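Sample intake sheet
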Amino acid sequence: MELAVGEIISGKVTGITKFGAFVSLPEGKTGLVHISEVDQSYVSNIRDHLSEGQEVKVKIIAVDENGRINLSIKKAQPRPASERRPFNNRSNNGGNGAGKNTGYPQRSGSRKPQRPISGTYAAAKEVPTSFEDKLKHFMQDSESRMADIRRNTDKKNGSRRRK
């Protein structure tokens, strides 16, 4: 029986270290369950979760070129329903369809309200026709934003700029 990545098998804990536990597998092989792969929650002391001689179900997550076998106990167990997150569910993105479809709800708003579109700023939102126009609009917008940042920073510091 050849051990394959993704396979779930049972084994026996043969040794415990501060960074993980060694598990004996069929055919006399041994693999390591890293402390981060023991439980869904944070594990500060592995001995609170495992003991030597304990039978555990493990999932083979990797076999490196040296033949070392990386195992996971938490991936061998199904995730609790409360921790499952929707994947590719368009009903959770706020209904606006904007941005990437990650399966997570979209943020409803930003921290800073957007500037109203009026005057030259509205013209900057139109699509410029040449590179020079794009560069000019970019520089104007950039200078305006930098001025806002400087003004807000000065207010927070309680100081005025010296010339």
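Comment: The chain has a mean pLDDT of 77. The first strand starts at residue 8 and ends at 17.
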